[in-house]
Amino acid sequence: MKLWGRSSWPLQAAFLVALVMLCVDPVSAGSRNHRGPTVSYQVKQGTCEVVAIHRCCNKNKIEERSQTVKCSCFPGQVAGTTRARPSCVEASIVAQKWWCQMHPCMDGEECKVLPDLKGWSCSTGNKVKTTKVTR
Prior knowledge:
The protein is mostly beta strands. The chain has a domain at 105-134. It has two helices and eight strands; from the N terminus they run E-H-E-E-E-E-H-E-E-E. The protein is globular.
């Protein structure tokens, strides 16, 4: 998952990392060791917590941000993003790629699903923040 653009909301990126981890491979985050040690505490049912933040800038001066999130969602829910923060959302939203239905943008921002359905953008004025789901 990558977040492109000069934005001040790195928490939205957390959703996509967690989404991929939970949707593609539903093994608990504690058993994965591909990104180093993981946190071993319990997350309250129905919530998500950020456990790692990653930030870099590519040669085109586009900032890329991602986060690793640990979620404990209720049945029928998966990791998602609400108001630019990681959260549990209805699984059907993610399965059908209706990204804007989970309200991923901040108040006052307009949400648009990307043409290839692989993510969404949040815009206000001339500022656009794009989030893409990668597997």
